[in-house]
From TrEMBL:
This is Hexosyltransferase. Keywords: Cell wall biogenesis/degradation, Glycoprotein, Glycosyltransferase, Membrane, Signal, Signal-anchor, Transferase, Transmembrane, Transmembrane helix. The lineage of its organism: Eukaryota, Viridiplantae, Streptophyta, Embryophyta, Tracheophyta. It is found in: Endomembrane system. GO terms for biological process: mucilage biosynthetic process involved in seed coat development; mucilage pectin metabolic process; plant-type cell wall assembly.
Length: 362
C-alpha cells in the first residue's frame, strides 16, 4: 500500500498545482452541465478500418492486494459474495482506453482492491480478452448487451452518432446482473476515481432508488421542449416534486428497489413517448430526469467533478468546480486521451494520464 500512498501524494501535489494555476479559465456550472449531457451526442462511430481504435494493446496493471483491515470474506469468489463492492461500466472500442483507465483508477485508490467486482457491459464480446490480460487478477463478469434491445426505442436524431445503444445499457442493469447483486455503482467511461470507492459505496440512499450529485441551480425547464411543457398529458409530471438536474454518469443504484418498481419499463415508456412526440432533444438522460428528478438521494458533488471534456470548440479547457474532489469526469465532447494524442492536452488532462495503460504500437 506504500506505493499507493506515494501515488496519492503525487496526486495531491498535482491537484494543488492545478488549483493554484491562475491561467485556467473558469466557467459557470450551468455551462458545464449543459455540455456534460451532450456527451453521448458526440461519440464518433467506431470504424473497423481505424487502426488506432481497433489495434489496442494495454500494459498489465500492477497487482494490488487487500490491506489487512479489509473484511473481505475470501470464501466464495463468486459474484454473490456479500463483501463485494459492485461497479458497472461499459466497454466499447471507442471508449475502451477510458474504461481501462477508469478501472485502473478505482483499483489504485482502493484499500481493498480485491473486494471490488466489475460488471462490464459490452456489445462486442471480443473485449473480454483485453480486460483479462490487462487486469489478470480482476474479479469481473462480462454482460452482452444486445443493441436490438433498445434500437427500436431510440428516437432518431440529426446525428446518427448520438444513438449509441450502449449508452442505454445502464437502464438494464437490474435484469442483466445476477439477482443477488442488489446495489451497483454505475460509472461512465470518461472518469477517473481518486478516492476509495468504498466511500461512495457506503452512501445511504434513504428511501431513494438512485443516488447522484444533484445540480439544483441548473435551469431544469431547458431539458424539455415545448411539446412537453405545453402538453397537459406531460406537463404535470413533476408536480409535487422539486426536480433538479443530475448526471447519469455516476450513480449509486439500489437494484432491489429498481427491479421491484419496474423502472426499466417506466424509462422505456418515456422513450416510446419521446419517439412519438419528441419531448426533449437529448439522448439517454432526460428519461432519467422524468422518472427520478426530485426523488434522487443527493450525493456529495465531490463524486462528479463533471464537464472537464469541455465543448466542441477546439482547445476549450475547463477548470474544476470548487470543493473537494473524489472523481473527475471528462464529460463534454473533448476526451483526455484524444487531446494527449493530439499533443494539445488541457491542464487537467494530466490528472487522467497516470491511469492510462494504453501502449502505443511501434
Ligand atoms: C494493427 O497494426 C498493424 C501495424 O500497424 C497492422 O498491420 C494491423 O493490420 C493492425 N490490425 C488491426 C486489426 O487493425
Ligand atoms: C430556462 O430555460 C427556458 C427554456 O430554455 C427559458 O425559456 C427560460 O427563460 C430559462 N429561465 C431562466 C431563469 O434562465
Ligand atoms: C399544461 O399545458 C396546458 C395546455 O397547453 C396549459 O393550459 C397548462 O397551463 C399547462 N400547465 C402547466 C402546469 O404548465
Amino acid at each position: 500500500m506504500l506505493w499507493i500512498t506515494e501515488f496519492s501524494g503525487f496526486f495531491s501535489a498535482a491537484l494543488a498545482v492545478i488549483l493554484l494555476s491562475p491561467s485556467l479559465q473558469s466557467f459557470s456550472p450551468a455551462a458545464a452541465i449543459r455540455s456534460s449531457h451532450l456527451d453521448a451526442y458526440f461519440r464518433p462511430s467506431p470504424s473497423a478500418s481505424d487502426h488506432s481504435v481497433r489495434n489496442f494493446s494495454y500494459r498489465e496493471s500492477p497487482i494490488l492486494r487487500n490491506a489487512d483491515e479489509c473484511r473481505f470474506s475470501g470464501g466464495d469468489p463468486g459474484v454473490c459474495n456479500p463483501s463485494y463492492v459492485h461497479v458497472a461500466i461499459t466497454l466499447d472500442f471507442v471508449y475502451l482506453r477510458g474504461s481501462i483507465a477508469a478501472v485502473n483508477s478505482v483499483l489504485q485508490h482502493s484499500a481493498c482492491p480485491e473486494s471490488i467486482f466489475f460488471h462490464f457491459l459490452v456489445s462486442e464480446t471480443s473485449l473480454e480478452s483485453v480486460i483479462r490480460s490487462t487486469f489478470p487478477r480482476l474479479n469481473f463478469k462480462i454482460y452482452y448487451f444486445a443493441p436490438e434491445r433498445v434500437q427500436s426505442l431510440i428516437s432518431s436524431s440529426v446525428r446518427q452518432a448520438l444513438e449509441q445503444p450502449l449508452n442505454y445499457a445502464r437502464n438494464y442493469l437490474g435484469e442483466l446482473l445476477e439477482p443477488c447483486v442488489d446495489r451497483i455503482i454505475y460509472l461512465d467511461s470518461d472518469i477517473v476515481v481518486i478516492d476509495d470507492i468504498l466511500n461512495l459505496w457506503k452512501t445511504g440512499l434513504g428511501p431513494s432508488t438512485i443516488g447522484a450529485p444533484e445540480y439544483c441551480h441548473a435551469n431544469f425547464t431547458s431539458y424539455f421542449n415545448g411539446a412537453f411543457w405545453f402538453d397537459e398529458r406531460f406537463n404535470e409530471t413533476f408536480k409535487g416534486r422539486k426536480p433538479c438536474y443530475f448526471n447519469t454518469g455516476v450513480m449509486v443504484m439500489d437494484l432491489k428497489k429498481w427491479r421491484r418498481f419496474g423502472y426499466t419499463e417506466t424509462i422505456e415508456k418515456w422513450m416510446e413517448i419521446q419517439k412519438a412526440e419528441r419531448i426533449y432533444e437529448l439522448g439517454s438522460l432526460p428519461a432519467y430526469l422524468l422518472v427520478f428528478a426530485g426523488h434522487v438521494a443527493p450525493i456529495s458533488h465531490r463524486w462528479n467533478q463533471h464537464g472537464l471534456g469541455g465543448d466542441k470548440v477546439k482547445g476549450s479547457c475547463r477548470d474544476m468546480h470548487e470543493g473537494p474532489v473524489s472523481l473527475l469526469h471528462w464529460s463534454g465532447s473533448g476526451k483526455p486521451w484524444s487531446r494527449i494524442d493530439a499533443k494539445h492536452p488541457c491542464p487537467l488532462d494530466s490528472l487522467w494520464e497516470p491511469y492510462d495503460l494504453y501502449k502505443r504500437s511501434h
